[in-house]
Amino acid sequence: MESFKVRDLSLAGEGKKNLEWAEMHMPVVMLLRRRYADQKPLKGYRLGLVLHVTKETGVLVRTLRAWGAEVYLAPSNPLSTQDDIAAALATEGVHVYAWRGMTEEEYFWAIGRVVEAEPHLVVDDGGDLHAYLHDKAVDIAKKIIGGTEETTTGVIRLRALEREGRLLYPVIAVNDAYTKYLFDNRYGTGQSTVDGILRATNILLAGKRVVVAGYGWVGRGIALRMRGMGARVIVTEVDPIRALEAVMDGFEVMSMDEAAKIGDVFITATGNRDVIRAEHMEKMKDGAILANSGHFNVEISVADLERIAVRKRQIRRYVTEYTLKDGKRLYLLAEGRLVNLVAAEGHPSEVMDMSFANQALSLLYLKDNAGKLQPKVYRVPREQDEEVARAKLEAMGINIDTLTPEQKKYLGSWKL
Ligand code: NAD
Ligand code: ADE
After folding, report:
1. How far, in Å, from the CA of 148 to the mean position of ligand 1?
2. Distance separating alpha carbons of residues 66 and 36, to the nearest angstrom
3. Ligand 1 — pocket residues by CB below 6 A?
4. N or C: which end of the chain has fewer CB within 10 A?
C-alpha cells in the first residue's frame, strides 16, 4: 500500500510552521501529549482517523504518535484539507491520504486506505468511516476495539445503527461531551462561519438580514456571532421549543418561506436535508447569498439550484453565481459544503483544543476498557469532561472556587 498521498510535499515547511502555531494555542492537548509521552500507551496500536485535515487535526495526530500509535488519516470532507498540513504530516511518517478538491470517488478511496490498515481504534467526523466499516468491511469492523465520533450528524447515524442492533463496536460520542458541543459547535462554528463567509465574499454584515436555519448548538453560535457583527438575524426552526428559545433570545423567528423573501444571507445549520429548496430560492432577492455549516452538502438543495438556473459561473473563489430564468442571481458559497472549513480554516485552535483533548482521552479509555464495553454509543465519562474543563481554565489562568465541607453537606441533604 502507498504510505501516503498528498497534493504537494514541498508545502511541508509551511505546514510545520502552521502546526507549531496551532500547538501554541492548544495547551490542553499539549499537556496530555507530555503527560503520556514516556509511557507510550498506544504503542503497537494502529489508529484509523477520518477528520478534516487541518492544523488542529495535525496537533492531535502528532500527540497520538507521541503516544506510540501508528496513524492512518483520511479527510472527512473532499474540500476541507489544508494541503500544507497533509504534506507536513506525510513527511513525519503519518499515512495520510488527503488533498483539497478530491472527487467523491477519491474521497471514499482515501477512507478505504484507512480501513485496509485494519485499525484497532477509529476516529470519525460525520460517520462516513463508521458507515464504510459497517457496510463494506464487516470483518475488519468486528475486530475493532472501539471508535469515537466527533460531530452531531455522525452521532445520529451511529444511534440509528445501534437501534437496528447492527453496531459492531463501542463508540464514544465525543460530540456530546459538554466540553465539546458547548464550545466547538457553538463558539467554534459561530466564529468560523462568519470567517468563511467574509473570506469568500468580503461583504459588509452590518445591517444585512442573515437567516440562520436551525437553532441547535451550531445555529445558536452563528446567530449570536452574526448579531455581534451588526446583522439583523432571523432564525428558522422546526422544533417549537428551540424556536421559542430563539424568540426569547431576541431573534426574529419565521418560516423559511417567509424568510426567503427578505433574507440577504442564508446559512443552514440543521444536520437535515433540503432545508432550502427551489420553492424558497424562487422567492429570494437578487444577490442573495447561500451558505451551509451543517456537516453534509445536502442542506441547501444544490440539485434544485442547478435545475432552476439557466446560467452558472464562478465569480470568485468559493462563490458560484447561479442566474435564474427571471435574471435573478443567487450566490452559493463553497459548493454548499461546510463554509467554515472550505472558505476559512475551520474552528480556531483554542476550541479544537477541548474537542481533541476529549478525542485523545476517549481513545485511551476505549483501549483501557477493551473487551469490557458493549457495542453501544457511550457518552464521554463526566470525570473526563471535568478534567478537560479544569485543564482549559488553568491554561487560561482562571481560578474557580471549591465547595466548603459545609456547602457540600448542605447541597446533599433534604433537611435544611
Ligand atoms: P443540533 O441537533 O443541536 O441542532 C440542529 C437544529 O436544527 C435542531 O434544533 C433542529 O430542530 C433543527 N432543524 C432540523 N431540521 C430543520 C429544518 N428543516 N429547518 C429548520 N431547522 C431544522 O445540531 P448541531 O450540533 O447544531 O449541528 C448541526 C449540524 O452542524 C450537524 O450536521 C453537525 O454535524 C454540524 N456541525 C458542523 C460543524 C462545522 O464545523 N461546520 C461543527 C459542529 C457541528
Ligand atoms: N471541525 C471544525 N473545525 C475544525 C478544525 N479546525 N479542525 C478539525 N476539525 C474541525
Report:
1. 19
2. 8
3. 151-153, 181, 185, 189, 213-219, 236-239, 242, 269-272, 275, 293-295, 338, 340-341
4. C
Centre of ligand 2 from the C-alpha of residue 56, in Å: 7
Residues lining ligand 2, Cβ inside 6 A: 51-52, 54, 56-57, 188, 341, 346-347, 352
* Coil/strand/helix, residue 15: helix
Q: Which atom of ligand 2 sits closest to the CA of residue 338?
A: 2
Tens of pLDDT along 357-401?
999 999 999 999 999 999 999 999 999 999 999 999 999 999 999
Question: What Cα–Cα distance (Å) separates residue 315 from each residue in 271, 320, 391?
Answer: 28, 6, 45
Alpha-carbon 402 to chain mean position: 33
pLDDT in tens, 231-269: 999 999 999 999 999 999 999 999 999 999 999 999 999
| CATH architecture group of domain 9-180+347-395 | 3-Layer(aba) Sandwich (3.40)
Domains 9-180+347-395 and 188-342 share a fold: yes
- To the nearest 10 degrees (0 to 180), the angle between helices 128-136 and 152-163 is 30
Q: What fold characterizes domain 188-342?
A: Rossmann fold (3.40.50)
